[in-house]
Amino acid sequence: MTFEIFNPAALGAPRGWNNGMLAPEGGRVLFVAGQIGVGAGATLATQFEAALANVAAVVEEAGGTVADVGRLTTYVTDMEAYRESLAEVGAAYRAVFGKHFPAMALVAVTELVDPRAVVEVEAAAVIPQAQSGGDSAMDLPTAKQQP
Question: Element (H or E) spanning 81, and its range?
Fold first, then answer.
């Protein structure tokens, strides 16, 4: 999916994200639930990389690639730890998403549902119509009505 990128000059040059991503016509929107990576270890960077890999797995299952992701929201439980590990977080990001930078938000939260998690990532992607896979509501069998 090729997004049209919008970075108004009045907002300054973004670094590692884009301010706006407009998807072309003909795509299907995929919302990816918050993903964690607690099995990867205790550090923010290792959990971040695993969470991103989980996002990528969902997008790929739907027939897309990470280039189809238009928005990422990352939740961290320790903003200071995030700032201190920017180099490792950047390397983890590039390991999964390469040089694709969607619109992004970073939010500090007090805790996540899984107490072992220090980071959670959710996403929205636009999968080209011809590539989309998975079950669609139109493909699912409908329940038979009782007489």
Answer: helix 79-84
> Residue 2 and residue 27: Cα distance in Å, rounded?
10
CA pair distance 52, 58, nearest whole angstrom: 10
Q: What is the DSSP letter of 144?
A: P
CATH architecture of 20-128: 2-Layer Sandwich (3.30)
CA 25 to chain centre: 21
pTM: 0.81
Element spanning 80, H or E: helix 79-84
Q: Are 126 and 30 in contact (CB under 8 A)?
A: yes
User: pLDDT (tens digit, 9 = 90+) per residue, 93-131?
Assistant: 999 999 999 999 999 999 999 999 999 999 999 998 865
Contacts 24+ apart (CB under 8 A), 54-57: 54/121, 55/96, 55/121, 55/122, 55/123, 56/96, 56/97
**Distance of alpha carbon 102 from alpha carbon 67, whole angstroms:** 8
Rounded to the nearest 5 degrees, what angle is found at the Cα of 55, between the Cα atoms of 86 and 18?
Answer: 55
- Measure the CA angle with vertex 36, ends 105 and 48; round to 5°: 60
